[in-house]
Amino acid sequence: MSETQTTEIASSDAQASEISIAEIIKNGLWNNNPALVQLLGLCPLLAVTGSVVNALGLGLATLMVLIGSNTIVSLIRNHVSDAVRLPAFVVIIAAFVTCAELLMKAYTYELYQILGIFIPLIVTNCAILGRAEAFASKHHVGYAALDGLMMGLGFLLVLVMLGAIRELFGHGTLFASMQLLFGPDASNWVVQPFGDNYSFLIAILPPGAFLVTGLLIAGKNTIDAALKRRADANKERPVKGAKRIRTTGHIS
Amino acid sequence: MAFKQVTSPHAHSAQNTAKVMQLVLLATVPGLIALTWQFGWGSFINIALASVTAVSCEAAIMRMRGRSVSFYLRDYSAVVTAVLLGLALPPLAPWWIVVVGTVFSIVVAKQLYGGLGYNPFNPAMIGYVVLLISFPIQMTTWITPLALLPLGTVHPGLIESLQIVFSGYTPADGVTGATPLDTFKHSSGLLADQIYAREPLFNQAMLAGAGWEWVNLGFLLGGLILLSQRIFTWHGPVGMLAALTLMSLIFWDGGSSSSPGSPLMHLFSGATMMGAFFILTDPVSSAVSNRGRLVFGALIGVLVYVIRAWGNYPDAVAFAVLLANFAAPFIDNYTLPRTYGHVDRRRATEKEDQS
């Protein structure tokens, strides 16, 4: 019994050593970004990103839950049988979501009210269960926590960017009502580049979320394609044509 | 003497996209004349502004995509989209309304999906809906029709109209007003007869609202011209108009205070005729087969009535068309035409290799 367990641990550690820290960071933030590549957690992504403060609030809550759940799932990964694995993960995630909800209720009550149902709905965010299942349950606790942090940061960055673009084009403001998150000093952070009575409702409404998300994904793909082109250009190419010396015909 | 044996179909000459689009543009002229006669120069300016914007957007995107700019501009499809949007927008709308709507139509609804032939939704209606939900105030400010102008006033002339459109100064009170569908919708508590007796919009009209009936008749005329030129089949328009008539007959309860309005009003006011002949006949975003187009049109007719009668918006052609565009692939799936010579109907669940 103990022997099989140790071999399991050994095998999972061997697996863990296959992935490097740089790779985890790069995957979370760019290559395998939960919002732009995996397209997970679209419900909060599209629903609450009407402003920077909402996006930041939900992104931070998700980040916290993701780090916590990844850590705990990784710690118990060798003690849970396959049959109860998923329910156990969901219970762990739900526990962290409850913590996040209570914390937000205590410290940022107004933001908690604005985000409403989307805070408890973090439980159903596929990105979190996906990371628990695909990464944390197979890797060492340190790697799992880092993966949670990076995936959460990747998600948070996309959320904030979406929120900023939609707030800017929808209401013509940026960083409005940041006092909900950063205290009364933040109330004068608001920027209004287009004047007072600018409004373009479609950016705030759900269609705007889809449009901006689509454009962000397109932007990422464009950057990836450009990087790939550059890498290909730098690659040394084998010389085309005959390598033997020609003795007949026209030599160009 | 040997006769040349010619089998059907007897095609006259190749009909190319540019020719079709030019005919559609020509067919909008009666509607445009009616609009200009009844509501002033606004629609004219809308169309000009939208066309310039659409052509520049199309050219810019084509350049970005590395395609031939002149080839794609020469098919007139961008101009048709612009003209339809310009006709749908309220006359004397601020210039940026027209520009934003056209940019959305061409860039987002048409080119981002792959250009002409690939857009699942009608581009002009996407532009219209984006504007309607983003700028409700500007989009619901309609000019008073000619018959109802206060004594001694006329619609602003071309120069003054241009000033209104570009400088943003709003026309004086009495020059703008509600549309017939709007008036009818917001006169709850009155019998239909009382509304007709009270509102000049209705008692100065022959069929369905002063000014609006002429606009609808103009588009009806243009549509019939297109039909006679076989630009589209009768199935789509007839499906929509029949469904709208049927719905309004069923729910017209003789004109009680909660009646959604008579069939005549629904047929000849709002965007009914323009929608029936110019919008839902878009060959790209509508259903493909004849039977499918009948269903597609009927769906739009029912949706237009449902939203007009029980929804929040007074008119609903744009929303109905977009919803039906969503349904078009589904309709196509269940209305597969049978190749000539077969008797049984073809079922969507039929396997290809069954014989």
Could you characterize the architecture of this molecule?
The complex is a heterodimer of chains A (252) and B (355). Chain A is mainly alpha-helical. Chain A is built from eleven helices and no strands. The longest helix of chain A is centred in the middle third of the chain and has 31 residues, at 141-171. Chain B has two domains: 16-177, no CATH class; 179-210 and 217-334, no CATH class. Chain B has 18 helices and two strands. A two-stranded antiparallel ribbon of chain B has the order 1-2. The longest helix of chain B is centred in the N-terminal third of the chain and has 23 residues, at 42-64. Classes of the chains: A mainly alpha (252), B mainly alpha (355).
Supply the key terms.
heterodimer, A: 252 residues, mainly alpha, 11 helices, disordered N terminus, B: 355 residues, 2 domains, two-stranded antiparallel sheet, 59% helix, 1% strand
What topology emerges from the helices and strands here?
The complex is a heterodimer of chains A (252) and B (355).
Chain A: H1 2-18, H2 21-31, H3 42-47, H4 52-75, H5 85-107, H6 109-115, H7 126-134, H8 141-171, H9 179-182, H10 201-204, H11 206-234
Chain B: H1 17-27, H2 29-39, H3 42-64, H4 69-73, H5 77-88, H6 95-111, H7 123-134, H8 136-139, E1 142-143, H9 158-167, E2 176-177, H10 180-185, H11 192-198, H12 200-203, H13 212-228, H14 235-251, H15 263-268, H16 272-279, H17 290-310, H18 317-334
Helix pairs in contact in B: 1-5, 1-13, 2-13, 3-5, 3-6, 5-6, 5-7, 6-7, 7-18, 13-16, 14-16, 14-17, 17-18
The helix-and-strand class of chain A reads mainly alpha
Mean pLDDT of chain B: 86
* Main pleated-sheet profile of chain A: none
Biggest sheet of chain B: strands, sense, closure?
2 strands, antiparallel
Find the structural class of chain B using helix and strand composition: mainly alpha
- Kindly report the spatial arrangement of strands forming the biggest sheet of chain B: 1-2
